[in-house]
Amino acid sequence: EKFEKEAAELGKGSFKYAWVLDKLKAERERGITIDIALWKFETPKYYVTVID
């Protein structure tokens, strides 16, 4: 909900999921990737790596 609200305030509501990994202010304002981000997690069946 936090990311959804922040994205909507900047007129970028469709970016709400991208903001989970986009930490730089410039990335959020411009809607582009500047710094690479990784998020790893595991389920009982899979190892998952999300790369941005």
TrEMBL record:
Keywords, A to Z, come to: Elongation factor, GTP-binding, Nucleotide-binding, Protein biosynthesis
Any Pfam family hit: GTP_EFTU
- UniProt-recorded Gene Ontology molecular function terms: GTP binding; GTPase activity; translation elongation factor activity
Source domain of life: Eukaryota
Q: Where is the Tr-type G domain?
A: 16-52
Q: Which InterPro entries match?
A: G_TR_CS (IPR031157), P-loop_NTPase (IPR027417), T_Tr_GTP-bd_dom (IPR000795), TRAFAC_GTPase_members (IPR050100)
- Gene3D superfamilies recorded for this chain? P-loop containing nucleotide triphosphate hydrolases (3.40.50.300)
Q: What is this protein called?
A: Translation elongation factor 1-alpha
Tell me what organism the protein belongs to. Aplosporella hesperidica
